[in-house]
Specification:
CATH class: Mainly Beta
Strand content: 35-45%
Distance between the termini: 31 Å
Keywords: Repeat, Ribonucleoprotein, Ribosomal protein, WD repeat
Largest sheet: 5 strands, antiparallel
CATH superfamily: YVTN repeat-like/Quinoprotein amine dehydrogenase
CATH topology: Methylamine Dehydrogenase, Chain H
Strand order of the largest sheet: 1-3-30-29-28
Helix content: under 10%
Shape: globular
Radius of gyration: 19 Å
InterPro entries: WD40/YVTN_repeat-like_dom_sf, WD40_PAC1, WD40_repeat_CS, WD40_repeat_dom_sf, WD40_rpt
């Protein structure tokens, strides 16, 4: 991944949020506003109940995008490493690539409301539970810590053999999955701190994990260039998704559970969860166009950095970030660009919320709140 070039106009972390105009497709008119990968996991004996509850509470799917806006929010002095947005979409947790602690910030006041300290090395990822009571963080110190969001107190520490790269909560907030450098995904009981399932079928380190909205499966993305979808009750593989040529950098489910979104540097892929087939494949040039030449030489290599399914009922759309400093909203079926945001540097942190919000963090520490309506 290639970081963005220096920009003397980059926003400092202490600057006030300012509204920006946004580039859109010809279909829409918008003004310059709002992350989260919604994750779900179920107790072995409550999957059916959770699936029904999820259907009752889930946002309406295929919601059309009528308005899109964004603004800058409180960021960091160096590259943004992770962002997690609370289910209410009122608060968000974030840290930089140099932080061993993580802060909770409020969107309305654009200021810090809590700090979580306890790791002995830099934090890599974070996830806030669906009930909003807990947060999990993973770190280079080979642990995953469970926190009380209100008190900021450390509740449990889950030790691993190697660096813990990613984590996700289940829908009832009672289970938590971690992805580790030892190539193992582990499903944990958050009440007892015990390991429930160990998934060992990847041949590379685990980069990202996501729960299916019905709680029945976890999708794990790996440096082995595969996505594996496995049962949260048995730990058995449902199917393996192949087709990426490089390390898979992200994975997420659409909120209706019908599609999985993933990307490596060269391709964005959309997969059907019904049969595991790829329904869309987008190369950077398909969206960005040909790279401009530099003084007669071949232009810089174009690449994707991260992707995620759009928030809430916007199941027709995918968010994808490129190393050209843009975040794009593309149509999941056609690949057409519906909206775009130009950032101060390349984006290496991207997440979608439960309703209408998403957030991005760039290489310079700037953060952007995206709002889909």
């Amino acid at each position: 991944m290639v970081p963005g070039a220096a920009d003397t106009n980059a926003l400092a972390p202490h600057e006030s949020a300012e509204e920006r105009s946004v580039g859109l497709s010809s279909k829409m008119t918008i003004t310059g506003s709002i992350s989260i990968t919604n994750t779900v996991c179920a107790q072995p004996n409550t999957v059916t109940h959770l699936r029904k509850r999820q259907r009752d509470n889930e946002p309406k799917s295929d919601r059309p995008l009528r308005n899109f806006s964004y603004k800058t929010i409180l960021g960091h002095s160096t590259r943004v490493k992770c962002i997690a947005i609370a289910p209410t979409e009122r608060d968000y947790a974030s840290c930089s690539n140099e932080d061993a602690s993580i802060t909770l910030n409020n969107f309305a006041i654009n200021d810090e409301v809590g700090i979580f300290t306890g790791h002995n090395d830099t934090i890599i990822s974070a996830s806030i539970s669906p009930d909003g009571k807990y947060m999990a963080t993973t770190s280079k110190d080979k642990t995953m810590i469970l926190w009380d969001v209100v008190t900021t107190k450390q509740l449990l520490t889950y030790s691993h053999a190697k660096v813990v790269i990613c984590c996700c909560f289940g829908p009832d907030s009672k289970y938590l999955v971690s992805g580790c450098q030892d190539r193992v995904c582990r499903l944990w009981d958050t009440r007892k701190g015990k390991e429930w399932i160990s998934y060992t079928h990847h041949e590379g380190i685990i980069i990202a994990v996501a729960y299916s909205p019905d709680g029945g499966y976890v999708c794990s993305a790996s440096a082995d260039k595969t996505l594996r979808v496995w049962s949260t009750t048995t730990g058995k593989t449902r199917y393996t998704l192949t087709g990426h040529a490089g390390i898979i950098l992200s994975c997420s489910y659409t909120t209706d559970g019908k599609y999985i979104i993933s990307n490596d540097e060269a391709l964005l892929r959309v997969w059907s969860t019904e049969n595991g087939t790829c329904t869309l494949s987008l190369a950077p040039k398909d969206v960005m166009g040909p790279a401009p030449p530099l003084q007669g030489k071949k232009g810089p290599k174009q690449g994707w950095t991260l992707s995620c399914a759009a928030p809430g009922g916007f199941t027709q759309y995918v968010l994808i970030a490129g190393n050209n400093r843009y975040v794009y909203v593309v149509n999941r079926e056609t690949g057409e660009v519906e909206a775009q945001v130009y950032c101060k540097a390349s984006v290496y942190c991207l997440t979608a919320g439960t309703h209408e919000l998403a957030a991005a963090g760039d290489h310079f520490g700037n953060m952007y709140l995206l709002h889909m309506e």
